[in-house]
Amino acid sequence: MKRYGILILMAFALMTSFAQKKEFTLEDLNFGGTNFRKMTPERVYMTWWGDELIKQEYDKCSVVNKKNGNLTELFNLEQINSWAGFEGKDKINHIYGVTFPYADKSIAMFQTGSKRAMIDFKEHKLVWSQNKEGQEFADWNKNSRAVAYVQNDNLFVMDGNGKVSQLSKDGSRDIVYGQSVHRDEFGIYKGTFWSNNGEKLAFYRMDQSMVIDYPLVDIDTREAELAPTKYPMAGMTSHKVTVGVYDMATGKTVYLKAGDPTDRYFTNISWSPDAKTVYLIEVNRDQNHAKLCAYDAQTGDMKKVLYEESHDKYVHPENPIVFLPWDNTKFLMQSDRDGFRHLYLMDVNGKMLKQVTSGKWVVMSLVGFDAKNKNVIITSSESGDIQRNVYAVNIKSGKRTLLDNGRGFHLSPYTVQPLSASGKYICDEYSEPDVPRVVCVTDTKNAKSVELFRAANPWEGYNVPEYSAGTIKAADGKTDLWYRMVKPVNFDPNKKYPTIIYVYGGPNARNVEASWNYWSRGWETYMAQKGYLLFILDNRGSRDRGMEFEQATFRQLGQVEMADQMEGVKFLKSLPYVDADRMGVHGWSFGGFMTITMMTNHPEVFKVGVAGGPVIDWKLYEVMYGERYMDTPQANPEGYEKTCLLNKAKDLKGKLQIIIGMNDPTCVPQHSLSFLRECIKAGTQPDFFVYPGEPHNMRGHQSVHLHERISNYFDTYLK
Question: pLDDT tens digits, residue range 263-292?
């Protein structure tokens, strides 16, 4: 009896402990939530001063001992403001953003609301400052201390002494200077490019006067006003881009003599180390041919076409060439020419010297160089399809040395400057499916690593679902597809659960990776807590699996993806705990397109769907993205007709909610409104919700409102 009583007490204690575990709210799990920051793994901020690793905190900077992680304070916030004499609007409020631009000088650079300032922290004095008020798209160069910026639509350069030069006078919403062009495709994210010495500036000029104005509306005035956006749709007239080069020494600007810019894309701009040559990769409008071109920076004349690459489907260059720091005559180029993205060594005469990396995996990024040992530091998928790991690759021998533990997802994009100045050390922030966040410092020569920080699990004490990953075969019967599954909290294999497929499915993205909880979205955890099973599958067409995998969807977006997703459905139906009669689907953007595609093509499977910001008709989508994957409507009428969801409005049977931002400049409202009109004609009954003034994704706390709405829809019609 005594033993029986003890067992009862133990069971009661376990039940009490379990019952006391907390539950999540959307304020905890959504990025717009009031408690979201506290529910994400703690982060530390690091940067490099030469080969010295510096920890940045709110009110101080410290040197990190790379052998044991011990900290030695370098300076604090009070000292910096005192040395600089900053007060009022010029006062430095925190130290997180400090940089150390010169490896051999004790200079820290700070930016306030009105100034850029350099402080010598050994001499305890302000050594340089520069006004930054009113500067948009500012691009500063450490060598000349000059900054390029946009003001009132025109491009300016301020030199290190504060002298301002105006490079353009005709800037407007039609004539755009110094900003990203080609709608941020081809890896383009900015519009100004300094030479290494900071004496010359290459910049974009985009004439979009010939592009249609899409009529978005601003309702924040007494009478609503037009707020149009330039939107070149597939098969229609696109903008024209030219590249200028400004020489600070002469004060003159020349434009690269590339010829008529009509229906051409100028991408991946870079400089030669001696600042005499500008390189760019030109892509034709069909996006099936790329040319690496060299131009004379002084005259704008083309010097040579160094390399050309064609593909019967499409090319997609996203990375500029990078010169070897120990040899100004050689550079590395990234290419998919053998079916996987790899590094190739070329010389300035255009001679292909060797393929540096090879294998059925992709180079994900070129991080930098270890110049002493003549190695290039990369991240790649070599250790696993859903992983990202760090390698040192010897340029001469091609030998690869793994610089991490061979697991997980390394070099978080939040690590702004992972490599030290010489390339001797790398600061690696990473996570694994069961490891929230770790920061370590690694010697790139011998791969010896020292752990500096390990974040606690911020979800300790909460009821957390089970996250897992695995593979199934694609619809072709041979290709492995990775999935993530999130099982309901308190999962019971003897029960049957309503199941939601979260889908994106589109090109140049993926959903499953070997980071914390397999990169699960907070909303999935929230729904698992409510008793749903979540399933996420990266179908063919998603990124980082090679060209054959990625190009399987060419000219028929949504078709191969849907076939693969239905293999996921088949897998789910084979599981005894999945309720096949309660299956839903949700996605945003391309995922919204996939949601409606799957619901209308397989109405017998999906009872409920929520489609956010969906593409409905690819003829209404933008030129660069749309034509890369679908060709033009003129060249591929069958593909556009087959994938158009206007034709499928009549086939809607389940409960579908469409949600958009009213001012979406990416997937314009015409998509969803056109689909609603067809549903009215067909007598089908989707639900519709709009967020006034919002773009493609809901911002701030409105995202919490959005995900509450999505959750409630499934609770009402699926659960």
Answer: 999 999 999 999 999 999 999 999 999 999
**Checking DSSP bridges between strand 655-661 and strand 687-691, what pairing results, if any?**
parallel
Which whole-number Å values give the CA distances from 187 to 181, 184, 239, 615, 677, in the listed order? 10, 7, 18, 22, 36
Strand 425-432 with 45-49, pairing: unpaired
Q: What is the three-class DSSP state of 547?
A: helix
CB proximity list for 156: less than 8 A, separation 6 or greater: 135, 148, 149, 150, 164, 165, 166, 167
Q: Which residues are catalytic?
A: 589, 664, 696
Tokens of 123: 């001499």
**Calpha distance 595→603 (Å, rounded):** 11
Helix 702-717 vs helix 522-529: angle between axes, to the nearest 10 degrees? 40
pLDDT under 70 in the chain at which residues? 1-19, 413-416
Longest Cα–Cα distance in the chain: 98
3-state secondary structure of 448: coil
pLDDT, position 684: 98
Residue 574: which residues within 8 A CB-CB, separation 6 or more? none
Per-position DSSP letters for 218-252, written without gaps between them:
E-SSSS-EE--EE--BTTS---EEEEEEEETTTTE
Q: How far apart are CA 357 and CA 353, in angstroms?
A: 13
By CB atoms closer than 10 A (0-12, 13-18, 19+), residue 638 is exposed
- 417, 58 in Cβ contact below 8 A? no
Determine phi and psi for 541, rounding to 5 degrees: 110, -20
Residue 26 is predicted with a pLDDT of 98
Cα 568 to Cα 472: distance, rounded to the nearest angstrom: 7
Query: Chain-centre distance of CA 638, in angstroms?
Result: 32
CB 282 within 8 A of CB 182: no
Q: In this predicted structure, what is the pLDDT of residue 86? A: 86
Determine the pLDDT at residue 7.
47
Give pLDDT tens digits for 234-274: 999 999 999 999 999 999 999 999 999 999 999 999 999 99
- For 647, residues 6+ apart whose C-beta sits below 8 A from its C-beta are 641
Distance CA 692, CA 707 (A): 16
The C-alpha angle 442, 447, 451, rounded to 5 degrees, equals: 40
- Tokens in use for 26? 């959307």
Amino acid 19: pLDDT: 55
Nearest to 388 by CA among 367, 363, 368, 370: 363
The answer for 182, left when phi > 0, alpha when psi is -120 to 50, beta otherwise, is left
Q: Regarding beta strands 175-177 and 200-207, do their DSSP bridges make them parallel or antiparallel, or are they unpaired?
A: antiparallel
